[in-house]
Every structure is written in structure tokens, then in C-alpha cells.
Amino acid sequence: MRYPEAPRLDLVEDLHGHRVADPYRWLEDPADPRTQEWTQAQDALTEQVLSGLSLREEFAARLEKLVHAGAVGVPVWRGERAFSTRRDPGQEHAALRVREPDGSVRVLVDPMQLDPAGTTTLDAWSPSWEGDRLAYQVSTGGDEESKLFVLDVATGEVLDGPVDRCRYSPVAWLPGGEELFYVRRLAPDLVPAGEEQFHRRVWRHRVGSSAETDDVLVHGEGTDPTTYFGVHTSRDGRWLVVSGSAGTAPRDDVWIADLAGDAPDDPPTLRDFQVGVDAQTAAWVARDGRLWLMSDRGTPRWRLAVADPEDPATWAPERWRDVVPQQDGAVLSDVALVDGPDGALQVLAVHAVDATSRLSVWAADGAGRLVDVQGLGVGSISGVSAPPEGGTTAWVGYTDYATPPSVLRWDAGAPSALETWEQAAVAGDVPALSVVETHATSRDGTPVHLFVLSGSGVADRPRPTVLYGYGGFNVSLTPAYTAQALAWVAAGGVWAVANLRGGSEHGEEWHRAGMRERKQNVFDDFAAAGEHLVAQGWTTHEQLAVMGGSNGGLLVGATLTQRPDLAAAVVCSAPLLDMVRYELFGLGRTWNDEYGTAEDPTELGWLLGYSPYHAVREGTAYPAVLFTTFESDTRVDPLHGRKLAAALQHATSAQAPILLRRETSVGHGARAVSRTVGLAADQLAFLAEHTGLAQP
């Protein structure tokens, strides 16, 4: 193919003794006329190639139905009201609703009513303890720069906002709905240039007052600029728990404040609960007055324990009293407190075994497991919820590869069973789907679990196959309704999901086995998964494609440069690819605990060992590659896709195309459903073209 001209700079830097070339440094600047000209030429080339793909329209038609399946969120009960999100087929975004005591349902926040163009997303929401007020956050154009509002639930009147700079802000209400704790970044003129994305603080805010002049600073001075904070209040308003983690580090500090007798204008006195410890602990004071602790401290597969918030002597880990101890082969992921039939407090606990959810009931006094809940398939529990005031009922979010996010109901009167509470609608025909679980063996002998989706569940003959992975940031790839997978299987292909090291499928040890100096394990796991699919007869190397986004984009970028022979086609979406300079852009600085930093000589060596941009070799026959980037992405800068696309176009000796597909007015996260259809159709049609998938 004739690719747009991309001049190569003779730029080589000496970094801690490493000679590091960066010939496409100029592509980092989107305002550079050369970048703009090159990008426009890439747009034209990509559209020319994609428009000629034989299955583009067929995939678009099928995805138009499958993507528009509904989705129902787990209800959050406050007082007599239940708050939840729902998206019905045909809707671009989920709307936030409230279910009143009489059973009627009203929409409170609909992103499409706020912005008919569909570029506004609902980022977060939190009702007051009484359920009469709602704090919600929205952003526009994919920038995720949330603005906070407060509305009156009964009337829909906006009482407060917009309060800007609230990206990733939790909200914790005080009783009465007049005050809340939240997280907000400092004003840009108060931070060093280039650090506007950081410097968060915890504030106490009175609804209707000025956030600029009246908020009370609670915590954050003197902490790492990249720290993300969490806040939680007790139902009676006495206790405040603040947590903080530097970037995405798998450890957090936790502080507890007794608010009894504090004046609203005085910062609360925060006492150290867990500070400077290499562990994660979620802490809250529940209705029984105990301090509940869900933690991986000394238990990498997590446990649930209790302590006394009034007695710091019980805060030492050896004094914690286990309620749900760490389980062999299972990872604790969520809990809800419920009342048993006799009124005794119980715990509904969610565990994952090989990335598949299990539900069980435990005695809150530490007496042990009471019952296992039946009726779940090979699927995922997205959350469990129960009224904070108590009750014998809980709600369970559930999804699997063929079931859109829905809600089940659990009741203490029949503790081993579940019933449907609110089922999401399915748009179009969901194809016959079989899920096979299997294990590959990585280079060092580690078993790697895979879900293999197909029409028959049998490797009767090699078929075009997509292998998907992520492998990082403690993210677990659990079964979930996936329109792309269903569309691919409906067309006769096989879709596989690999549970790689770096995720949380087997707890924190599994995560740490795939981060920092051990990152190569992730790429080895993925290659082993691909080889396993070939060896088992599901596919061939000529029919195999690999796909990933964000950290998964790094995964497939490293795979295509380390093992260009593994797969015939690659989709690399919103990727990290220049691992020498990733910290300089977007939120990259918050990820150096996951990857390492180029400022450290040893850690730079780790990064150069796999950085895809620096691993490109001229004359190599690279597979077909489609990069998809989003111009409003404030997490992973699109420069990564531009630079590796240019490098591969220059270096490849193969005829397979290297394409860059970009979008504007969308970012890294949520988007309108219609925008999803176009992107997914192009990705699948591209993979089909280069793996030999033909429409049945």
C-alpha cells in the first residue's frame, strides 16, 4: 500500500545509558501542521479501505440490534425510594430513574434530554440517605471532566451546580441532605503547569453554597499530587472514612474521623487507620455500629472482617475479627449486609472462581457460611445492594455472554434461590452460544484460563477466531454481554477471552505477577492462549486475530511486535504504545506504579523491554493492524496510535494494511450507542477480511 508520507527524525536520546530513538516525535503534537496533514491523509486512506470491506454493512446491521440491547443497573435504596439506571433498546444512553414507594417510576436524569446530540454522559450519581436529594455528575464530548449537580428528587429542581473539576469524585452525604463530602481538583492557577489533571482534595460542601469560597477543606494537603480519594459516611452521620491511593497503585491509606460534636466549619480530625501499608482496605461503619473491613491485607484473595471504630486498639490487623475469611481458589469481590429471617445480621458475599461469580450467605457474627445461592450460570455479578436501614431482601446485578445486565432478587426466606427482579430487553436475535472453559500453559508453566465462545462448543474445524485480553490494573475479565462477540459467533467465528496475569481473576498476587518488572508475563500468557487455541483445533495462525483496548491495546501492541507470526490481524484500540514517554501525557503519570517510570534507570529497562513503539523492526512482515483512537481521550493520548501506525507503515514488508481510524467528540469511556455500532462494525469487518471469515 502507499501510505501517507511521514518524515523520520534523526532523533536519538541517551536515557540512563540507553540509546532511544524517537523518529516520530513530531506526531505527538496534534496542532503541528505536519501532524494535521498526515492525519487527514490517514483518514482518507482508512475510509477507502474500510468502505471496501465485504462484511462491513452486514456487521453493522447485526450490531445495530445487538448493541441496542437494554441494560438495567442494580438499585440503590434510600429511604423508601430505589434509584437505578436503565437503557431500553433504541436509547443512546442509560437514564437514571427513581422508583417511588407506590411503585411508580420517574426519570430523574436523562443524558439525551440534557444533550440531544448524544455527547453528554452520566458519569456518577449518589442519592442522599433519606432519598430526597440526588448528587449527579455529567461530562460532555468524552472528556470525562465531570460537573457536579444536586437536584430535589420530588420536584426535579436543580438545587446546586455546576461544580466543575469533579472528575472521579465520590460523594458521601450527611443525614438531612444539606451537606455532603466530595472530591474536587484545585483550580488550575493553584497547581504547577502540566498538572491540572491532578491535585485532588476532599471537601465538605453545603448544598447551595459557593464551592469556590465556602467549602471546608477536609483532607489532601501534602499528599501525592496523583492521589485519588474515596469518602464514606455512616447512616447516622457520626463517622467519616477517607481513603487515598497514589494513582492506580494497589495500596491505599485509610483515615477515620468521629464527627460527633464537630462544628460544620471545622475540618474533622482524621485518625490514621492504615497508612503506609502495602495493602488495599475498604472501610465503612454500618448500621450495627461496627467498622467493616474488606481487605487484601495479608490475604491476597480478600476477606471481610470487623473492628470497633471507637477503639483504635482493635484497628491492628491481628485484632480484626473475620466474618468471611479468605477462601481457597476464590476471590471476594463484593458484599451486602442483610437481615436473616430471625432478624440476625447476615452477609451476602460474592466470590469469583476462574472469573465466574458465586454467591453465598454468611453469619455476620463470624460463625461461618450458612448457604450457597443457586441458579447462576457462567456469568458475573456486577454488584449486590440492600437497604442501609436493614431488611431481608437484596438485589443482585447479573450478566453473562448472552444476557444483558439485569437485576435478580434475593430473599432471606428462600436463601438458596434467586428470582428475576428486572430483566433487560434483548434487541434482535441472540445467536446460539456455547461457552467452553479451558486452560493454556504459559511459558513459565502458569495455567491461563480462557472462555471460548462458539456456536457449537466443539472445535470441529479451525475457524476465524478473535482472542481478546487486557491483563492489567487488577481488572478481571468476567463473562458479560458483548455485542461484538455475539455478532462474530453469529457469522460463524469463535471468540475467546483470556484471563491473563495483571488482572484480579485470582487475587492480588495474580495482579502483581503481571505488573512492573513482571509485565512480560502478561504477553507470554496471551501468546500461550493463542497457541493453545491453535493446538486445540479452534483456529490456525492464519485465521487468528487479537484485539484489545487501553492497557489491552498495549497488550496487542506488544504481541504484534514480539510475535508478528502469532495472528493474521490486530485491532489495537485507545492504546498505550510509547512506554518511554507515556507518563508525559493524559493520566499516564498515575500509572507508573503499574508499569514503572522512565525516570528510573532500572525501570526504564523494563519499559524498553516491551515498549511496542521501540520494538518495531524494519523488514518484518507484520500482520494487518487497525488502530482506533479517540481525539477527546483524556486518559490515553491518541499520539500513541499515531506514532506506532507511522512506524509500522514504514517498517512492514507485508502487504497487509496498517490503518489508523480516529473519531472526534468521543473519549476513552462511555459513548452513545450509535457511535459504538460504527466502530464495532469497522473493527469486526477488518478482522473478518484478514482471517477469512465469510458471511454464512
Describe, in plain words, how this protein is organized in 3D:
The structure is a single chain. With 696 residues, the protein is α+β, with helices and mostly antiparallel strands. Helix content is 17%, strand content 33%. The protein has 11 helices and 39 strands. A hairpin with a 2-residue loop joins strand 25 (345-353) and strand 26 (356-363). It is globular. The chain starts with 11 loop residues before the first strand and ends in a 5-residue tail after the last helix. The mean pLDDT is 96.
What is the gist of this entry?
With 696 residues, the protein is α+β, with helices and mostly antiparallel strands.
Kindly, what is the distance between the CA atoms of the first and last residues, rounded to a whole number of angstroms? Answer: 30 Å
Oligomerization category of the chains in this entry: single chain
Query: Structural class, from helix and strand content?
Result: alpha+beta
The residue-averaged pLDDT reads: 96
Q: Strand sequence of the main sheet, in spatial order?
A: 32-33-35-34-36-37-38-39
pLDDT < 50 stretches: none
Count of individual helical segments? 11
Radius of gyration: 25 Å
Strand content: 25-35%
Biggest sheet statistics:
8 strands, mixed
Helix content: 10-25%
Number of strands: 39
Shape: globular
Please outline the helices and strands:
Elements: E1 12-15, E2 18-21, H1 33-51, H2 56-66, E3 71-72, E4 76-78, E5 81-87, E6 95-99, E7 105-109, H3 111-114, E8 120-127, E9 133-140, E10 147-152, E11 158-163, E12 171-173, E13 179-185, E14 200-206, E15 216-219, E16 227-233, E17 239-246, E18 253-258, E19 271-274, E20 281-285, E21 291-295, E22 303-307, E23 321-324, E24 331-339, E25 345-353, E26 356-363, E27 368-373, E28 379-385, E29 393-400, E30 403-411, E31 419-422, E32 434-441, E33 447-454, E34 465-468, H4 483-490, E35 494-499, H5 508-512, H6 520-535, E36 544-549, H7 551-562, E37 569-573, H8 592-595, H9 601-608, E38 624-630, H10 639-651, E39 658-663, H11 673-691
Parallel strand pairs: 34-35, 34-36, 36-37, 37-38, 38-39
Antiparallel strand pairs: 1-2, 3-5, 4-5, 5-6, 6-7, 8-9, 9-10, 10-11, 12-13, 13-14, 14-15, 16-17, 17-18, 18-19, 20-21, 21-22, 22-23, 24-25, 25-26, 26-27, 28-29, 29-30, 30-31, 32-33, 33-35
Helix pairs in contact: 2-4, 2-11, 6-7
